[in-house]
Amino acid sequence: MNNIELEILKSKLPIQPGILRKEEYFNSAVLIPLIMINGEYNFLFEKRAANIRQGGEICFPGGEFDTEIDSSYKDTAIRETFEELGIDKKNISIIGILDTLIGPMGVTVDSFLGVLNIQDISSLKFDANEVEKIFLLPVSFFMKNEPEKYHVRMEINPTDIDKNGEKINTLPVKELQLPDRYSKTWRGRKHQVLVYKTEEGIIWGITAALINEIVLKLNS
Question: How much is the mean pLDDT over the chain?
Fold first, then answer.
């Protein structure tokens, strides 16, 4: 590399750091919906329908970034909110975005905080194929109640099982002459899992992490 190439490289470096190789993750976006009820903001949650992925869990509306439909992650959050809860874009005021969350299972979540211009959620026509029910909980509940904290430990495995039940080396350690320790499963870092117990059920994982991030900002 010469000086000219160095200057070209310099010009292509990001002004603000992002997430390297983000395209290799499952990239998603969610809306964190707020509704004012009797002078107090509430989070709007949905309980996922039992027959879909992560069925029965409580979450915010959101889903995978679609490169053919969405021009931004904000578009994804708004589109998914409309598809799942029937809330039109004109009734959503985005007030900001949280830092991108990277989950331990290879998912990224870009989260948008939005105030809904809705007086009563009973009039919402949510998609029963995806959503079992919707409900509100005051933000103050989470400010007053600390989440319980647990941990999981992820493992990295250089092998897999194919459709015929045969073991395959997804990382050919011996052929690459890598240290032998990488031919066996090795342990990753412990990952904290937050859990809120509410009258509507358990709120945990990524949804709990997003709530906690907002609470920390409110209390700081």
Answer: 93
